[in-house]
Amino acid sequence: MIKNLENIHHVAIYLRISQEKKGENVETLENHRQILIEFCEEHGFTYEEFGEVISGGKSEITQRVALKRLLDNIEKYDAIACFELTRISRNGLISQTVKQYCIDYDKPILTPYQSYDLANSETDRLLFDVGSMISSHEHSTIGKRSKANKMQMSKAGLHVSGNVPFGYKRNNETKKLEIDEEAAPTIRYIFQLHSEGYGSFKIRDILNNEGYKSATGKAFNLPSIKRIIRNPAYKGTLIFNNRKKIKRNGKFEYDNVETITVENAHPAIIPPDVWDKANQDRESRALKSISIREKPAIKSGVTLLKDLIFCGVCGRKMIIRKDTKSSTGYTLKKCEYLLPNGEKCPNCGKKLDAVIARVLTGLTKYADDLSQMEEQLRKNNASDLNEKNQLKLNQIDKAIMEVEQKQKNLIELAMEGLFSHEEIREKKQELVKRMDELKAKREEVINSINSLSVEEEIELIQEKRKLILSLREDMDQEYGNELLKRFIKKIHFTRVIPEDILKRSTRNSERQNYPFNIKFEFFD
After folding, report:
1. Predicted TM-score (pTM) of this structure
2. Is residue 161 a contact partner of residue 242, using CB atoms and an 8 Å limit?
3. Per the database entry, which stretches of residues form a coiled coil (predicted)?
4. Segment holding 157, helix H or strand E
5. What does the pLDDT look like over 416-451, one tens digit per residue?
């Protein structure tokens, strides 16, 4: 029963559908939205919407971006409106967190059929607790039942979880995989190229150059090629991993409790003996490749720039390889990743000694800049330093607001059907990760305001400058690499050679001496 609503004028509408529950989609979300809007309009409420697509069983409030934003701004609203209590959460911890906010700020929860005055009614608190307990128990029971059902079905060779592998389609009646005759030739071609000695990089380039498309209709990328070659589904084997979610060092991980393997569960696209040989070859090639890659071994050593060079075009980490054909040491390999448009990254490589020389020259200049910074700091006071930090804080707050707006826009785009559930999930995870990074940075800056003295800042600069001046080309490479990683986050390398020069011989002087740029990204 809806109780007295006279003091309620502006409410926060909370919308949630599960990313895991079958039958729930953007249409479900829109239906709930319309019911709540009609409810608000009927009672003359103004409202603001908070929506997200996420499982109600999530136990971390930070994972519930929209709900957390609502709670952070709860004083702006007279009540929280939701379709039903289970839409707030199916996790007891989250439910109790919401309840406590409502009690502390004296905000009721409204549904189209029932209101809960948690701050003033013991009966409503009891009803809320009972409902939350039942929801939590139901979520847990359904999860266990679903897992047991999936395991039993997997033992019968049925495809019950995960995406359908490219090259197959799932028969919804038999729940078994069947060969997709339109896509299967691409899988066979990949294994054929692999058997001819081509590696994943080359296979990717051949497929893209010849116009083949992946399961998403886009160009093939390197991880997709590797996943296809490793996937035992292509030899007719079904694998189901029963995993247990556990938290370690503040992060959730999945431990594999049991692996169910069923041979001949569905038709094979690749004969089992061919698949087995391909993966034996893959492992053999990997071991051979490791022997020539940069590694902390006595024979090959560690280079000064290990794990520090990143592509200035696509942003990926670049590879440093031991040059086995000459005595010139190491080579920074050309970038072999794909750009978002499917084209190969044009960033070329360079002999590593030339890159190291440029890095050391750049760091010498940076050391001079540090000297100027030290001199300037000696003229300043703590208030000037905090003013600088305050400017940083303002920029971070601006970035946080932009991410929050993107999160708000995402659910609106979902309602308009512009993204699939998978795309929504991926975009949401990207935004959550970015928000966590910004908040961590914000906390770091806040802690530094009014706590870091000018003397301490000068000491940090002096220590950094001392490290830089101790670097030299003939020093122990591993020790030098450790020093660099103390104050350098990334070194961005860019060398895009024009096509007409790139077509010339590798011995051509103009091609060999084509310039490159480096850009440092230092830790604050």
Report:
1. 0.47
2. no
3. 386-455
4. none
5. 554 556 666 667 777 777 787 788 777 777 766 545
Class of domain 168-290: alpha beta
**Side chain identity, residue 28:** T
Q: Which long-range contacts (CB under 8 A, 24 or more apart) does 285-289 make?
A: 285/199
Burial 332-365 (b: 16+ CB within 10 A, else e): bbbbbbbeeeeebbbbbbbbbbebbebbeeebee
Asked whether 309 and 320 are in contact (CB, 8 A), the reply is yes
Q: List CB contacts of 343: < 8 A, sequence separation 6 or more.
A: none
> 10-150, what's its fold?
Rossmann fold (3.40.50)
Going by the DSSP 8-state scheme, the letter that residue 163 receives in this structure is P
C-alpha dihedral sign at 448, 454, 460, 461:
positive
> How many CA atoms within 13 Å lie on the side-chain side of 335?
25
Rg from Cα positions in the chain: 29
Q: How do residues 158-200 score in pLDDT, each as one tens digit? A: 888 778 999 999 998 888 999 999 999 999 999 999 988 888 8
Measure the CA–CA gap between 154 and 81, rounded to whole angstroms. 41
Helix axes 200-209, 184-195, angle to 10 degrees: 130
The closest of 193, 195, 169, 192 to 181, measured between CA atoms, is 169
